Amino acid sequence: MEINIQKRVLEANETQADKNRKFFKEHNVFVLNMMSSPGSGKTQLLCKSLKKLMPNVRVGVIVGDICTRNDADRLDVTGAKVTQINTDRFGGDCHLSAPLIFASAEGLGCSDLDLLIVENIGNLVCPAEFDIGEDARAVVLSVTEGEDKPLKYPLMFRVADVAILNKIDLLPYLDFDAGLAKDNMQQVHPHLPVFEVSARTEEGVEPWLDWLKIKVFEKTGK
Amino acid sequence: MHEMGIAQELVQIALDSIPGEIENPKVITVNLKIGKLASVVEHSLTFCFEIITKDTPLEGARLNIDFVPVMVHCKFCDNNWEVTGPVFKCPFCEDGDVEMITGREIEITSLELTE
Q: Chain B residue closest to A158 (CA)?
C-alpha cells in the first residue's frame, strides 16, 4: 500500500518564514541575514557598520551562537538594540530557524527599527538552507580562508544577494588572490555584488553601507 | 549538520500522513526527493532517521532517495542546462542572470506500507 504525500520537509520552517516576512513588513523593517564561516569577522564588521549607520538608520541585531553572549556584549556598545540567541549551552543547532527569529524579533521589538540584522551562526553550510523571512542575505568571506571557498560551499554563495570580502588589510601578508576569490564567487553566482572591506581599518566599509542603505530605503522608504 | 532537524520534520510528516484507521501500521519505505544542491548528507540523514524512528511505525523503514539534478535557467539568453559542479555561469552567453529550476528540493513524496 502506498500513501501519496508530496510535501516539503522544511514546510514548517517555510510557513513560519512567511509569517516572519509579514511581521517585518507590518513593522516596515528591512531584514538582513548575515552568514559566514566562524571567524570571518562578522561581529567586527557589524560593530563598525552600526557605529556609522546609527542613529540615522535605527538598527537592531539578533546574534546567534551556540554558546556565550560575547558577540552581543561587543555589539551592545554600539547603542543598537541587541539580542543574543544561544542554540544550546554546549553544542546546539548549527543554524537559526524561522521560529527562533520570530520569538527574538518579537522580544526585541521592531516598531522603532529601520533595519534588523541577523548575525547567523558561523557555518557555511546549514544556514543557507533555512529561510528566516529575511529581505536579503549577505555572505562574509575573509581573506584568511582560501579563494576556493565559494566553489566548496556553492549553495551559500548561490543564495546570497551580496558578498563581503573581509580583512583585506591582511592581503600584503598573504598569498590570497582577491581577484580569484571574487571570480569564484561570481562563477557560482553571476553578478553577485562583492565588496572588499577591512572591518579593522574601515577601508571599503562605506560602499558596503551605501548598498545596504539603498536596500533599506527601497523597502521601507526610510 | 542539520540532518537531525530534517529527520525530525520528515518523521512528523510521515506519521501524520498514516491514516488512523490502519491498525498497527508498518512503513517499509519512505520515498524522498532531494536536490543535489540541498545541504543534505544521505548517510547522516539515514543515521538520524534510524535513531528517532525506534518504536514507531517507521522503525526499520528504508529511505529511498531520488536525487534531483541541478537545473538552471539563464534569464538573459533563455537557455536551460544541468549544473554538475559549482559553476553557475551560463555556458551559452557566459554572462546572464541565472535562476535555479530544480536542485534544492527536500520533499517527501510517498510512504509504502505493508498490506
A: B88
- Least Cα separation, residue A189 to chain B (angstroms): 6
> Residue B13: which CATH number?
3.30.2320.50
What is the span of the domain harbouring residue A204?
2-220
Residue B36 within any structural domain of the chain:
yes
> Nearest-CA distance from A155 to chain B in Å?
7
List A162's β-bridge partners, or say none: A138
Residue whose C-alpha cell reads 557605529 in the numeric block: A51
Given a contact cutoff of 8 angstroms between Cβ atoms, the answer to whether B65 and B85 are in contact is no
pLDDT in tens, chain B (115 residues): 689 999 999 999 999 999 999 999 999 999 999 999 998 999 999 999 999 999 999 999 999 999 999 999 999 999 999 999 999 999 999 887 899 999 999 999 999 999 7
* Residues 6 or more apart in contact with residue B26 via CB below 8 angstroms: B57, B113, B114
**pTM, to two decimals:** 0.93
CB-closest option in A8, A12, A187 to B106: A8
B96 within some domain: no
Closest partner residue to A188 among B2, B87, B113, by Cβ? B87
Partner B contacted by A97 (CB < 8 A): yes
Cα distance from A13 to chain B (closest Cα, Å)?
10
Report the CATH number at residue A35: 3.40.50.300
Binning pLDDT at 50, 70 and 90, where does residue A67 land? confident
Instruction: Establish if B94 belongs to a structural domain.
Output: no
What total of structural domains would you count in chain B? 1
Residues of chain A neighbouring B6 (CB-CB closer than 8 A): 9-10
ipTM: 0.89
Query: What residues make up the domain containing B39?
Result: 3-69+103-114
Look at chain A and report how many structural domains it folds into: 1
Question: Which among B95, B110, B114 is the nearest to A5, CB-wise?
Answer: B110
CA-CA distances (angstroms) from residue B42 to B8, B26, B31? 15, 22, 13
